[in-house]
Amino acid sequence: MKDFEGFIKNYATRDFFYFFAEKSIEIYKNQVEKLDEHLVCNITFPLNIIQHGFIHKQAKVMLSAWDIPNMAYLSITNSNDYRNDIMTEQLAGRVVNLYRGYENKHSGSEYIGNNGLPSIFKYLMGMSYEQFKYANPAWIYQNYNRNYHMLIGSPNINREKIVDINVITNELFGLTAEELLAVEWIIWWLCSIHPDPLSAPEELYRKKENSILTKKNLERVISYYSVTYEQVRNSSLRKQIFYNKPFVITQKTKETIAVSFYLVQMMIADGLYWLIRDYYHNNHWGTKFIIAFGEMFEDYFEELAGLYLPKNSWHKIPEERKKSADYYVEVDEAVFLFELKSGLLGLGAKQQVPDVGQIDIFYNRNIKEAYEQLKASEQEYKGEKPVIKVFLLVCAPWARSNG
């Protein structure tokens, strides 16, 4: 019996990952409809099985939304668009069952079996970082709103140390940041209907003659977030490349297809942040943006504190040579210490078989360091109220990083 990789070698890549890209839309729509019940981001397919050698039964096999990018990656790396067999609904149960076998074989169970509880928790951390952003559809709006607020909207956040995002969007797309966002939301809407947004007639979304919602502008933006098969095959990120570039240009027809609707959502949610950070990276400007964004994160905290906390209840701790927390908040019953960290977990760490080394780096640079700073400030406190230590990460468990 063939395994998953052996099976998909006979199937045309474009049709294979297009089929599952459509399933990602179906999963999302079902998930949103059932949001009040539970956060479900999977779908089941019927599978004919034989038990005990002679009993014919029909079982169900489950496909989770986060499986789809890896299935697309394996199809691209093991096949091409010129194979004869075509993926169909009738084959779905068998294909997904074969993928479940592939996943079990490459699950990292050996690492879990050979390590203690702390290492297992780190492994689960990497797995959950990927899963949470699929399981919580509200994440796209929360992250999008925060990034917009910090990078464009708020008058209370100092952006003087970073390049104006409008300069970047104009250079890359010939659009202002607001125009870019309008185009991206149209792309999001089109991708919620079908995985190939550029196949939609322009009159569907262009309602005015002078509108910036043109096919040309959609092509510019989608091209920025697209990769070819060859780029996918040569990428050290492997399937994680789709979190950076959610669109794939097919080999035979040169169509541009979204691997998963969820990946398009992630592009929207974190797009502003990564446009700036990648711009700095491509211009070899080191960590200038990362440092500046850390200061902007403090501005954001102070803005929220000013809105929601009683006046004079919160204070910034003066920066000195010794390590300390960033802020303290004193209320009647306790003192809260806050340490803010704007570091991001590497992309290789946020998957079902995580790079534990990247988790260790993130832990040492952020969590461990934050704890030491909070502990130092706690020891400096001479009052009698209990001290509650809090560290805030700019990166929620579902945020994107390019490793």
Could you explain the architecture of this structure?
- The chain is α/β, with parallel strands linked by helices and 403 residues long.
- It has 3 domains: 4-106, no CATH class; 137-282, no CATH class; 288-393, no CATH class.
- 50% of the residues lie in helices and 12% in strands.
- The chain contains 15 helices and 9 strands.
- It has helices at 4-8, 13-33, 68-78, 92-105, 109-113, 117-135, 139-153, 165-173, 177-191, 215-224, 229-234, 241-244, 261-282, 288-308, 356-380; strands at residues 42-51, 55-64, 226-228, 247-249, 256-258, 314-316, 327-330, 335-341, 387-393.
- The strands form 3 sheets. Strands 6-7-8-9 form a 4-stranded mixed β-sheet, sandwiched between helices. Strands 3-4-5 form a 3-stranded mixed β-sheet.
- Strand 8 (335-341), helix 15 (356-380) and strand 9 form a beta-alpha-beta unit.
- Helix 2 packs antiparallel against helix 3 (68-78).
- It is globular.
- Residues 398-403 have low confidence and may be disordered.
How is the largest sheet built, in terms of strand order? Answer: 6-7-8-9
> Overall mean pLDDT score?
93
For the largest beta-sheet, the strand count, sense and barrel status come to: 4 strands, mixed
Number of strands: 9
Radius of gyration: 24 Å
Task: Estimate nothing, just give the exact number of structural domains.
Answer: 3
What structural class do you assign from the helix and strand content?
Answer: alpha/beta
> What's the SSE pattern?
HHEEHHHHHHHHEHHEEHHEEEHE
- Beta percentage is 5-15%
Dominant shape: globular
Low-confidence segments:
398-403
